[in-house]
Amino acid sequence: MVVSKRIKSAGASNPPAVTPRGHQQQSQPPKVVVVWGKYFGPGDLADWQRLMADLGFSEQFISKNQCRKALKSVWVNIVDFLDDVKEGRLPHRFDNASQLSAYTRKTNNIYPRRLVPKGSPLRSLLAGIFNSRRRHGI
Fold first, then answer.
1. CA 30, 34, 39, 44 torsion: positive or negative?
2. Angle at 121 between CA 34 and CA 74, to 5 degrees
3. How many Cβ atoms are within 10 Å of 82's Cβ, its own excluded?
4. Using an 8 Å Cβ cutoff, are 71 and 125 in contact?
5. Alpha-carbon dihedral sign for residues 9, 13, 18, 24
6. Can you tell me the distance from the alpha carbon of 62 to that of 80, in angstroms, rounded to the nearest whole number?
7. Of 32, 40, 42, 62, which residue is least crowded by CB atoms under 10 Å?
8. pTM for this structure?
9. 3-9 long-range CB contacts below 8 Å, 24 or more apart?
10. Residues whose CB falls within 8 Å of the CB of residue 90, separated by 6 or more in sequence, listed in order
């Protein structure tokens, strides 16, 4: 019986790690994920209140749950929202999920759903881009 050993050639790189779902792990998260993390911070009430103000809400929210409820009626593209905030502009709000979905598919400005942190307002903001009937269910 012959047993062969696989010998790595010099200079060969290791293949990318694979997650349990079969996705390759990226060494760097997409830019939008990094920018969102810097924008939103640790996620305390003040961060949520700033988000609500940046989305154009004038009322003062006294809890994260109030913010979450209000976000259910907000349709914004996350990538554009972050650019608008950076430039000091009020973000464009779409009338419904279908409009947001069509725009997002056209521009390919997508926040990867699998990278949404637990407890993040992104869970309320992300629409089902490829299935506009799906609003939640991350």
1. positive
2. 115
3. 22
4. yes
5. negative
6. 27
7. 42
8. 0.73
9. none
10. 56, 84
Q: Are 56 and 93 in contact (CB under 8 A)?
A: yes
Tokens representing 15? 């293949």
Residue 128 has pLDDT above 90, yes or no: no
Q: What burial class does residue 91 get, using C-beta atoms within 10 Å of its C-beta: 0-12 exposed, 13-18 middle, 19+ buried? A: middle
Provide the angle, in degrees to the nearest 10, between the axes of the packed helices 45-54 and 64-71: 30
20 vs 114, higher pLDDT: 114
Confidence label for 92 from pLDDT (cuts 50, 70 and 90): very high
- Is 54 in contact with 121 (CB distance < 8 Å)? no
- 102: tokens are 């069509």
24 pairs with which residues across the strands? 18
C-alpha to C-alpha distance for 84 and 29, rounded to whole angstroms: 21
If you average pLDDT over every residue of the chain, what do you get? 82
DSSP assignments along 26-45, one per residue: PSS--HHHHHHHHHHTT--H
- In this structure, are residues 83 and 54 in contact, taking their beta carbons and an 8 Å threshold? no
